[in-house]
Each structure stands twice: as structure tokens, then as C-alpha cells.
């Protein structure tokens, strides 16, 4: 007897008021050590592997949604955005100008700089040093990039010998850092800094090209089949502004995980609690920024890989609109769910790095027709009026579907603060088919991953990957062409629901993650682990940004009862980075007193 066929109602005919929220349930074992190795052997052994993946797909309703359902919408193979209304109170950056000129305009958007915030003799609440703090220190001759470089180098070299290790970088050259710092120091002493970013230290995730370093994607072999001859476009733009790159940051192998676990190079640990994960896949970038060693970093986000670790490490993570930044020179430059984006200690630093590195590729300018690149003018007298006009969408049942009430309660408190302080209005919304969104995302990113890795897997390289990556790839191989097309039909439905919601609200507000930083099982350090239930909590609120290409930002708002950071996520309209940055800045101001210094923190300016 065949499976009963389900026919979906056309999306325009759905009665959203009748939609019932379905809490997420993921059926998969938690595996480490011997059981993990055994499971990998089973899932890679024909025909057992096919039986296992078929069972897992049925248990998680993937088969029902993609094979046994008639989806009336036509496929959407990459995000398609309707024309958007111009944002209020913005300053145009003009992506045709060079990054240095854009930075000069971006500086005009910031509130006036007050050096006494950090440089007074009083002891203020904990604050990260900002990019403008470093620039002030350099131009006031308090220190130089070369002096700061020595502190960073010594800290990195000392940490590599400590137990437990904190492997934040995969590729690092003290000589290369010193060379860049010396050039920056000379420019600044001559009174000719390239930009506000001259002498600012940043790290680049190991799936983005940063010459002369190799790009390994945190594997043991990818650099052997893919040479690096120049910077990625986003890195080149930052380098032209005088940024000093300290190396290639650690990550979950090939970006196919949300914890940051990596047996190849060691698992990066959370600076707030070294027994816990940073989140991933941009684990190294988040840890370097949170620990004070870098003002900012560049990561990639295909399934929350910038926002998840930013939330768990208590920093700011921006995921830009799909197509907003040229992806050339990254391992994921041909996908439809992934972007390169900044992580930073503060919203203002995020704005500066974003202003320098953003800019669509020539092909995306033609096909996606992006709205003009811009920033919110935070120094304008209209800022408060614009904040008052914002309508924030909250899907309460989804918002509260977290592992611990600390998370939803803290996020709710921030919404109340926004209302009481600025007059922002919170409006109840409903987003149907969230489970279908998760399924469409995993099939999309999985199929695109297999497409890019296919030739190397044929050559047998996949057996050299970590065990949890091999499980993911075994599942990805099971996706058929028909399932991929069905997933793209779902993408169109879910885009429709979100665009309808954006008729009523300016942005959607959620917790960034449904769990704070999880503990690292000791058994996972040598051979890794697979825990899809933890991943489900980490990705609970993430996927609209990736499947639909929407901009989103995670901003720290405080800590749970264990002292672990909590992030609030703002999801914007297509090309609406300026609006979410404006609200993120307001949230940061309201919550600045709640930030705590990480237990592993290097104060590279105070040490001078």
C-alpha cells in the first residue's frame, strides 16, 4: 500500500489565524566515541546506509514533506525579493566608491566619540575597546599597532601551551602580523593612516581566502586541492583600509556544524566558560572577538554560523541580505543560503566593518537589484523619532520555545525596555510552516554542499573528514533531485508568509538561540560528536535569514543564571540592514550595563 498523498493549500489561501504552532522535535541519537565511529561505518556501508538515512528522513517528516506532498507553488531556486521602500534616516554609502571613502561616510553616522568613556582614570562598567578607541590611542601616541601586535602575539603563543587549549586560530604567522603592524605604524606616525580601520586587528574564518594563508575549511586536506593566490573580495576591501589580519580562525569543519567542535585542530572554547562551546560554525572568530584579541572578524553564515557563536559568546553578529556582499574567494561562493558577514564587539564596530566590506558582485547587482547600500544615521536628531515608529513582530509561541525561561524572559524584558524608552510597538504575528522551513533549508544547504564537494568525494577525500561531517554528508547524499525541487517550492511559500508579515511590521524579533552555550563532552574532543537536538535548539530561530536571504543581527542583552550570554535577534526586510542596525544600537545602549567581562579576556590596550 502506498503512502497517503498530502495536498497543500495554495499559500495565498492559507488562513494564518488558524495556524497552530508545532514545537520542534528532532529524532536522532546523540553519539560520541565508539558509538559515533560505529554509526559512521554503518551509514557509509551500502545498503545499510540507505536504510538508515531513509529511516531518519521518515522520523523527521522529511519524506512526508518532500515526497508525499503536492506543493502547488513553483520553485524559488535562490531568494527573490520584491522592491522595498527606502529606509528612514539613512546615509547612502554608494558601493561604487572605494571602501576608504565609504568609511569616511560611515563615521558621520556614529554618535560623537567620547574618549573619557574608556580613557578616564575611573573604573567604568566593563566595555570592549572599540575601533575608535584604538584609533584614538594610535593618533594620540598612547600606543602603536606594533606594540599591540606584540601583546596579541604573546597571548596567542602563551595560550597554545595551556591546558585546556584554546585553539582559536588554524593558521597564524607572527612574522606576517609584525610586518602588517609595522607598515600600519609607519603610516600612522607619518600622519597618513589609510582609514579609521588602519591598525585594527581582525581574524578571517578559515573558509575565506586571506593571502598568504591557506584556506582549509578546517579540514586536513582542502588546501591541497584548492590553491589561494589572492584575497577574497571582502578581505581585499578591508586590507585596502589598513586592517591587520592576525590569521585564519578556527571553525566547525566545512561549516557543517553549530557547536564549533573540531578534532582536527582542537575545539575552540567559550571565553565566558571554557568548558562550553562557542557555537559554530564561526567558532574561532567569535572567541577571538569575545576574548578581546580582535575588534572584529569576518565569518560566513549559511545556517546561523555568525549569529549563533555571537550569541553564545556575548558579541554582535550581523548576517547581511543574500547578495549584499561579494562572495568571491570563499568556499561557499556559489550557494544560495550563505553570506560573508562581520562579527564585532559592538554595533558601531559592526557598522564600520560592514561599510568597508559590503558591496554586491556585478552579477548580483543585475539579478537581485539590491537597494542602495546605506547605514542608519545614529547622530541625527531624527533617530529617536524613527525608533518610535518601528513595529516589532513577535510570534509568542515560537519566541517562548526555548530550553530555559531565562532566555525568553530576558528577550521579553528588552522588548518592554524598547517600548518604555523609545515607544517601539510589539505586534503579535504568526509564521506558518516553520518545520517546512527547516526541511527546505537542510535540503538546500546539503545539496549545495554536495555539489561543491562532489569531485573530491569521488576521489575518496571524504573519508579524511571528521566523523560528524561524514554523517552530514551521508544524509546530504540521500537527497534526490525531486526533493531538492520540492524544497525550493517550500522556499517560495515561506517567502510569501514573511513578506506578508513585513506588511504589518518592520522587523521580526526572536531570541537568537533556544539554548545558551552547551557543555563540551570530554568524549567529543578526540573524535567529535553528533547531537542534532542541541543543534535544533541552536538553530531554532535562525533559518529565515538563510533560506530566505533576509538580513538579521544578534546583539547581546545579558546572561542567564549560569552567567552565560544571551542574544536577541532582529530579522529585517530584504536589504534592511540599516533598520536592524539602528534597533540593535538602541538595544545595546539599553543593555550595556548587563555585559560581563569573559573569564578569559585579554585587555591588549590596558596592558600597555
Describe, in short, the structure shown.
The protein has 24 helices and 19 strands. It is α/β, with parallel strands linked by helices and 608 residues long.
Structure, explained:
The chain is of the alpha/beta class and 608 residues long. The chain has 24 helices and 19 strands. The strands form five sheets. Strands 5-7-6-10-12-11-18-19-16-14-15 form an eleven-stranded mixed beta sheet, sandwiched between helices. A two-stranded parallel ribbon has the order 1-3. α1 packs parallel to α19 (467-477) and α18 (434-458) runs antiparallel to α20. The longest helix is centred in the C-terminal third of the chain and has 25 residues, at 434-458. It is globular and about 75 Å long. It starts with 5 loop residues before the first strand and ends in a 17-residue tail after the last helix. The relative contact order is 0.16. The mean pLDDT is 95.
Number of helices: 24
The strand count comes to 19
Rg over CA atoms: 23 Å
Strand order of the largest sheet: 5-7-6-10-12-11-18-19-16-14-15
- Sheet with the most strands, sense and barrel status: 11 strands, mixed
Residue ranges: pLDDT <50 for 5 or more in a row?
none
Helix/sheet category: alpha/beta
Distance between termini?
75 Å
Strand content: 5-15%
Helix content: 25-40%
Rounded mean pLDDT score: 95
Shape: globular
Amino acid at each position: 500500500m502506498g503512502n497517503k498523498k498530502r495536498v497543500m493549500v495554495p499559500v495565498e489561501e492559507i488562513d494564518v489565524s488558524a495556524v497552530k504552532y508545532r514545537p520542534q522535535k528532532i529524532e536522532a541519537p546523540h553519539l560520541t566515541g565508539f558509538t559515533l565511529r560505529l554509526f559512521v561505518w554503518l551509514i557509509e556501508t551500502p545498503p545499510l546506509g540507505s536504510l538508515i538515512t531513509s529511516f531518519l528522513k521518515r522520523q523527521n517528516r522529511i519524506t512526508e514533506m518532500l515526497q508525499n506532498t503536492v506543493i502547488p507553488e513553483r520553485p524559488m531556486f535562490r531568494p527573490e525579493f520584491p522592491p522595498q521602500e527606502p529606509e528612514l534616516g539613512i546615509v547612502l554609502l554608494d558601493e561604487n566608491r572605494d571602501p576608504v571613502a565609504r568609511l569616511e561616510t560611515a563615521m558621520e553616522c556614529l554618535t560623537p566619540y567620547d574618549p573619557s568613556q574608556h580613557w578616564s582614570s575611573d573604573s567604568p562598567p566593563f566595555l570592549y575597546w572599540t575601533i575608535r578607541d584604538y584609533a584614538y590611542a594610535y593618533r594620540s601616541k598612547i600606543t602603536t599597532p606594533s606594540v599591540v601586535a606584540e601583546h596579541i602575539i604573546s597571548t596567542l603563543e602563551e595560550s597554545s601551551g595551556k591546558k585546556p587549549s584554546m585553539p582559536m586560530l588554524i593558521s597564524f604567522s607572527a612574522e606576517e602580523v609584525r610586518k602588517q603592524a609595522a607598515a600600519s605604524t609607519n603610516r600612522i606616525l607619518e600622519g597618513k593612516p589609510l582609514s579609521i580601520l588602519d591598525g585594527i586587528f581582525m581574524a578571517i574564518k578559515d573558509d575565506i581566502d586571506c593571502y598568504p594563508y591557506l584556506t582549509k575549511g578546517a579540514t586536513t586536506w582542502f588546501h591541497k586541492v584548492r590553491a589561494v593566490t589572492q584575497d577574497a573580495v571582502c578581505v581585499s576591501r578591508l586590507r585596502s583600509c589598513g586592517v591587520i589580519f592576525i590569521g585564519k580562525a578556527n571553525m566547525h569543519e566545512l561549516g557543517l556544524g553549530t557547536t564549533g567542535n573540531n578534532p582536527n585542530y582542537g575545539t575552540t572554547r567559550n571565553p565566558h566558560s571554557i568548558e562550553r562551546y562557542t557555537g559554530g560554525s564561526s567558532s574561532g572568530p567569535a572567541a577571538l572577538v569575545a576574548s578581546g584579541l580582535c575588534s572584529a572578524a569576518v565569518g560566513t553564515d549559511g545556517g546561523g554560523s555568525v549569529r549563533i557563536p555571537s550569541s553564545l559568546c556575548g558579541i554582535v553578529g550581523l548576517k547581511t541580505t543574500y547578495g549584499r556582499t561579494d562572495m568571491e574567494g570563499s568556499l561557499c561562493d556559489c550557494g544560495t543560503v550563505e553570506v560573508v558577514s562581520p562579527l564585532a564587539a559592538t554595533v558601531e564596530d559592526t557598522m564600520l566593518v560592514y561599510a568597508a566590506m559590503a558591496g554586491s558582485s556585478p552579477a548580483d547587482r543585475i539579478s537581485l537589484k539590491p537597494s542602495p547600500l546605506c547605514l542608519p544615521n545614529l547622530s541625527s536628531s531624527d533617530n529617536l523619532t524613527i525608533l518610535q515608529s518601528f513595529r516589532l513582530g513577535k510570534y509568542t509561541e515560537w519566541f517562548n520555545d526555548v530550553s530555559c525561561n531565562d532566555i525568553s524572559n530576558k528577550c521579553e524584558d528588552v522588548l518592554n525596555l524598547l517600548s518604555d524608552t523609545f515607544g517601539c510597538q510589539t505586534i503579535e504575528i504568526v509564521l506558518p510552516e516553520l518545520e517546512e522551513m527547516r526541511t527546505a533549508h537542510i535540503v538546500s544547504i546539503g545539496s549545495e554542499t554536495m555539489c561543491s564537494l562532489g569531485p573530491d568525494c569521488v576521489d575518496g577525500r571524504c573519508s579524511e573528514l571528521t566523523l560528524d561531517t561524514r554523517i552530514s554528508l551521508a544524509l546530504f547524499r540521500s537527497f534526490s533531485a525531486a526533493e531538492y525541487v520540492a524544497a525550493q517550492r517550500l522556499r517560495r511559500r515561506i517567502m510569501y508568509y514573511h513578506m506578508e508579515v513585513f506588511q504589518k511590521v518592520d522587523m521580526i524579533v526572536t531570541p537568537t538561540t533556544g539554548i545558551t552555550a552547551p557543555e563540551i563532552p570530554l568524549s567529543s574532543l578526540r573524535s567529535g560528536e553528533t547531537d542534532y537536538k542541541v543543534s535544533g535548539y541552536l538553530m531554532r530561530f535562525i533559518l529565515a535569514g538563510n533560506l530566505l536571504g533576509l538580513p538579521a543581527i544578534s546583539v547581546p542583552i545579558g546572561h542567564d543564571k549560569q552567567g552565560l550570554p544571551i542574544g536577541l535577534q532582529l530579522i529585517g526586510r530584504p536589504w534592511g540592514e540599516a533598520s536592524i542596525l539602528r534597533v540593535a544600537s538602541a538595544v545595546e545602549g539599553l543593555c550595556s550595563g548587563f555585559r560581563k567581562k569573559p573569564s578569559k579576556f585579554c585587555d591588549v590596550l590596558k596592558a600597555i
